[in-house]
Amino acid sequence: TSLLLMAGVVVAVGLCKRLTRRRLRAHQRLCAFLLEMLSTFQVCACTNELCLLGDVEPKPHTALTLTYGFTVLHGMTLTGSMCNPCGTLQPMWGGGMSVRTGAFKIGAQFVAAVLARAFMRFVWSLEMAQPHLGALSQGCSNPMQTTEVQAFCIELLFSVVFQLIILRVESVNPKYKVHLIALLITMLVYAGGNLTGAIFNPALAFSLHLNCFYDKFLSYSLVYWIAPSLGKFLILYVF
Length: 239
Prior knowledge:
Keywords: Membrane, Transmembrane, Transmembrane helix. About 75% of the residues lie in helices and about 0% in strands. It is mainly alpha-helical.
């Protein structure tokens, strides 16, 4: 049921993006906002559901396989979208995107994060699958299973590694590039998923752990917003 739900989200987002391009071709700014919002919605909604499948046996093989598979699927269906505020910083830093346009895209990503969270909580309330039982009563799932300093360093390191590899594979054939990136994300999730969740995406972190940001805003914003953004700026400054 969970797999069908995530597949349905991917199909629905694809249809909505096609309709958006067709109907809003003359309104480029609104079209760009909606396309970025829809793409980020897909990533956040599917990842919310994947988090519920982390305890499915055999652990962690099932969760890692699904992570790899859906990362490949996202890469193939969301071409041209950032889905990550840190990724939006790169063209802004290089002058390829104005600050206004970049802020517009980041706003779309966080709007999508909130909408995906609300949508998934509605789906979970229907209790269509076993993992959905009790999902609404979890509150803050507390993904940080280590100290705040260590969590900050882990997310910073993962962001640096991820952004560095992204730069190194820019010239790779897109057919193979999507698999390399999916493999990298799966490896990072395996290495640090039990400590911080290995998210390195501020919008996705906000969608996954919205209640945690409400309860402990300062610590969670430092780990899941400042650390990955700082990692991105370090890579941009060095390279």
